[in-house]
Amino acid sequence: MSLGDLSDARVVDLFAGSGALGIEALSRGAAHVDFVDNDRSARMTLEENLASLGAQSRARVWPLGLPHGLKRLAGPLVNADLVLADPPYGGAQAREVLRALGEPGVLRSGARVVLERHQKDEVPEKAGMLSRVRERQYGETVVEVYEAQGAAHDAAGLEGDLP
Length: 163
Known about the structure:
alpha/beta, Rossmann fold, 8-stranded mixed sheet, 4 helices, 8 strands, globular, disordered C terminus
């Protein structure tokens, strides 16, 4: 799947690591990306990557553990057009984050969530206000697109391959 044109989009990159997905969003025109990662080393690498690209003014790095840290992200989440989530494989974090993002009032209607998970990490088709609109499998990795209820359930612009 591709992120498509993200002109002026507001993006939240959960479990950001080095920031590859969020930086890709910036390269596709996103106005701003909030990067979230609890690992200090990953955040340092992310900040170096943003600096080398001169993208610090279009980004904010949050040192938060997830899913509990989502409460501190209320502003960025409610304004997000796209949330990227690549939690560690083999745990319940994918399910927990999806459930928290699906709570009423967390995301605006029409916001998309792109979740990357291992095929053995089970997640529901519907999580509160979120409904799965697309799913692709790449080997043992599954990429799913969810959309906040109240919007047209199409995944236009989400074709091709994610990096």
